[in-house]
């Protein structure tokens, strides 16, 4: 086997792990009638409310069209609200409602439980090694210039 073969095997393993992890988290979030994408929006807003849809799309690596549909559904469910920006009446700031804040908290707790059940069972020194490798890989991907510059 060549280095490229090994790298490809590890890359596929990482992609599959991501998919399995996302499916496991999705299963936990279904108990709250919440999709992973909806939870991503709500939890991002717990970090900083008042973002525009464009800012949310950039933070979540999705299109403005995707975020628009998500926000529409979250507004209809009473979980977020759009507030017109004084500086630009065509733009809206997205804010959590009390129900949205509570559901975000439940979603965060579900994700934290998944992390505790999985990553939390890895020895601290090995977890630190994994973190270092992931940061190294992130930097290599950024260096390709194929994605927008953001922290991940």
Automatic annotation (TrEMBL):
Gene3D superfamilies: Winged helix-like DNA-binding domain superfamily/Winged helix DNA-binding domain (1.10.10.10). It comes from the Bacteria. GO terms for molecular function: DNA binding; DNA-binding transcription factor activity. It holds the Pfam family MarR_2. SUPFAM superfamilies: Winged helix' DNA-binding domain. Keywords: DNA-binding, Transcription, Transcription regulation. GO terms for biological process: response to stress. PANTHER family: HTH-TYPE TRANSCRIPTIONAL REPRESSOR YETL, TRANSCRIPTIONAL REGULATOR, MARR FAMILY. This is MarR family transcriptional regulator. It comes from Rhodoblastus sphagnicola.
């Amino acid at each position: 086997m060549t280095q490229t073969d090994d790298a490809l095997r590890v890359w596929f393993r990482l992609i599959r792990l991501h998919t399995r992890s996302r499916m496991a988290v999705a299963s936990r979030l279904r108990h709250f009638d919440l999709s992973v994408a909806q939870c991503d929006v709500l939890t991002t807003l717990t970090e900083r409310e008042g973002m525009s849809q464009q800012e949310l799309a950039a933070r979540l690596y999705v299109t403005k069209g995707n975020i628009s549909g998500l926000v529409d559904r979250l507004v209809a469910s009473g979980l977020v609200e759009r507030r017109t920006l004084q500086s630009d009446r065509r733009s809206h700031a997205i804010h959590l409602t009390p129900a949205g804040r509570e559901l975000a908290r439940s979603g965060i707790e579900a994700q934290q439980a998944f992390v505790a059940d999985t990553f939390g069972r890895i020895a601290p020194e090995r977890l630190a090694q994994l973190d270092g490798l992931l940061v190294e890989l992130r930097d290599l991907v950024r260096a390709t210039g194929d994605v927008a510059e953001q922290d991940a």
